[in-house]
Known about the structure:
Blueprint: H1 2-7, H2 23-34, H3 47-51, H4 59-79, H5 81-104, H6 119-130, H7 140-151, H8 158-177, H9 183-200, H10 205-237
Amino acid sequence: MLKRIIYDVKKYEYKLDLVWFILFPLFNLVYILANHIYKKGFDLTIALDTQIPLVPIFVIPYIYWYIYMIVGYFIISITNRKEYMRSMLGLFLGMWISYIIYFIFPTEIVRPTLMDNSFFNSIINIIYISDRPFNCFPSLHVLGTYFVMRYTKKENNKYIYFYTRVVGVLIILSTVFIKQHFVLDAVAAIVLVEIINIIIRKISDERLDKFLNMPYLILQRITIYSRKFVEIGSNDKI
């Protein structure tokens, strides 16, 4: 019965898998909170940071990150559902580890003053105004990007593979080229993904199925309760 409800309803297949992605912006509310409780943070500048210039055009891949994440995780979901669930759990774990670090080890980056009002500089200024210069370590931009890069496989589609690699590298570089992050922020995010990947690889397929089926079970129960409610209402009228 359960198998029929979950897997025979093709119109919901994959669509409800994407429900997990809704949690991503909800969790991000914690980042907003962490970004507004400190007035000072640690400076993680290293010698390499001082050699990296501001390259305004890199603001394009930086803001493209939001589209990249949606496209990337959608591709992963329709390619391999279990890998999608594994990468999604890894992303959530990485985000919460990052949030804990933000609260106990706040960092602060000194941003340059942009004097001219060129198109790219104007966009960067909007980012600077909306996103305070705190909580850089590790970079969530790099964390999400690297998860997409790790879970798109060349054997599935070489064009998508190269797309996620090329655009992913540009996004990672953009975090330092528009002075949103230190070099160590990007390195820490990549290391964190690799560590988390080792952990989530130990999750069994049976447990992954439980996570994948959860939205379908919830839909099933909502449908059952809705029908009972309608039936009760109809009986009362009679």
